Amino acid sequence: ESLVLLHAAGGDCLADLETLRRDAGVSKMLGYTVPSARCAGDFLELFHDGEKVARARREAEVQERLAFIPEENGALAGLGAAGTELVRQIAARQPAPSRATVDQDATIIESHKKDAVWAYEGTRGYQPMVAVWAETGLIVADEFRDGNVPAQMAPLSCAQAAFAALPETVTERYFRGDSACHESGLLHWLRDAQRPEGRKGFIGFAVSARMSEALAQALKAVPPAQWKTFGKEADGTLRQWAEVDFVPGEKVEKKDLEPLRYVGLRLLKPQGELFADGHDQHYHALVTNRWEENGGDLLTWHREKAGTIEHVHDELKNGLGGGQLPSGKFGANAAWFRITCLAHNVLMAVRHAWPDESLKTAKAKRLRFEIIHVTGRFSRDRRKISLRLAASVEWIKHLLKLFSRFPLPTQATG
Predict the structure, then answer these.
(1) 235 or 120, which is more confident
(2) By C-alpha distance, which of 148, 149, 161, 150 is closest to 341?
(3) All residues at 6 or more sequence positions from 185 whose CB lies less than 8 Å from its CB, including other chains
(4) Of 128, 205, 365, 412, which has the fewest CB atoms closer than 10 Å, so is most exposed?
């Protein structure tokens, strides 16, 4: 709880706990004194299992691999279960949509810890995977990884955890991902309505296709007349789509499942203008199991994930404390990042529950200015404790409405 408060209040390292610890008003509100930085560091180390990390490394060496994903210990898995329950509690306390689109992607957190390894961008650090429920902005799953673990390595476990975290009220399920999600295990699981692990039923997905030489040839073979314009960039570049007749020779296809649809995207520069590589056309493609949608609408819908998952990555690393990892131990950093995700979801619940629309899209910085960093003074008169806030009457009314939407037991209420 203290670490979630630390992230929400703007702290980004364990030393910042001392600021909260010295604030007598914070202690009165919490009913306890915030733990010291050393105590919190010892707590985070409980989430590290050196034997599991060593075992995963040995198994990777046997298979002549450099990258590996250690199994979570019971403490870290328990923290994940707490995150799942938080998502369900938030959804139950507000009008949650019956549709859930899971956007999944990895992000790089730069770190110069001794055990941090090199990521593909040429920086040392870690590369956690995050899955977001796009309609609500809530993080439904995360998986901490070393920097050298490619996003395409085993993305299924994070996706399974994400869909498992969704409340039972969700009846429509969808998935969006970049080319790292164009992986056989994940696509087979998404396509299989009778999937053995997870809720059964249709999951509609759109994933950026990995650009193989065969797919590139298939895209270039599409007749010019079949490309349909559906959008235009600010610089005049046309966005065009076409159906692509393509059957991959890779193992992402499975004979007993319905074939996948490939939708091509052509970016066409205005006459006389070229991309930086000297060409006037760039080709991309989506792989999907959604056959009924117009290709342009499908590409537009898939592009919208940049407005959810990338913004969440930015908020976790820059708006909260996820970008400053506290330890040289993998499990401790994994717990710190997962607690950052908890803080993000708590603030997301506050955004949605605030009585007016002014904070619905606010970032953590704005929330602190409007709510968290408002000053007040505690006073005691006999057995009565009062809090006088330096705020307007209208703001205080909003705060009381916010509290009424999240009724919590306190020392005063029992």
Answers:
(1) 235
(2) 161
(3) 154, 155, 156
(4) 412
Q: Pick the closest to residue 270 from 295, 300, 239 (CA basis).
A: 239
CB 338 within 8 A of CB 142: yes
pLDDT (tens digit per residue) in 307-327: 899 999 999 999 999 999 999
Phi, then psi, of 116 in degrees rounded to 5? -70, 140
Contacts of 31 (CB under 8 A, 6+ apart): 410, 411
- Beta carbons within 8 Å of 138's beta carbon, 6+ residues apart: 87, 90, 91, 132, 345, 348
Q: How far apart are CA 310 and CA 104, in angstroms?
A: 10
Inter-residue contact 183 to 152 (CB < 8 Å): yes
Residue partners of 209: CB distance under 8 A and separation at least 6: 179, 182, 215, 262, 284, 285, 286, 287
Strand runs labelled E in 18-171:
99-106, 109-110, 117-118, 124-126, 129-133, 138-143
3-class DSSP assignment, residue 5 = helix
DSSP one-letter code for 369: I
The secondary structure of 170-193 as a DSSP string is --EEEEEE-GGG--HHHHHHHH-T
Distance CA 357, CA 351 (A): 9
Based on its alpha-carbon atoms, the radius of gyration of the chain, rounded to whole angstroms, reads 24
The DSSP code for 232 is E
Q: What's the token pair of residue 71? A: 């199994």
Task: Read off the pTM.
Answer: 0.92
Q: Following DSSP, what letter does each residue of 10-39 receive, concatenated?
A: T--SGGGHHHHHT-HHHHHHHTSPPPPHHH
How far is the C-alpha of 260 from the C-alpha of 395, rounded, in Å? Answer: 53
| CA 268 – CA 281 distance, rounded (Å) | 5
Q: Quote the CA–CA distance of 43 and 1 in Å, as a whole number.
A: 12
Single-letter amino acid, residue 214: A
Structure tokens at 268: 């066409």
Counting every residue written for the chain, the total comes to 414
> Residue 11 and residue 409: Cα distance in Å, rounded?
26
The closest alpha carbon to 68, from 124, 131, 148, 158, belongs to 148
What is the tens place of the pLDDT at every residue in 57-85? Answer: 898 888 878 888 999 999 999 999 999 99
Residue pLDDT, tens place only, 389-413:
888 999 999 988 888 887 766 554 4
Query: CB of 138 within 8 A of CB of 167?
Result: no
Handedness of CA 190, 195, 196, 199 (dihedral sign): positive
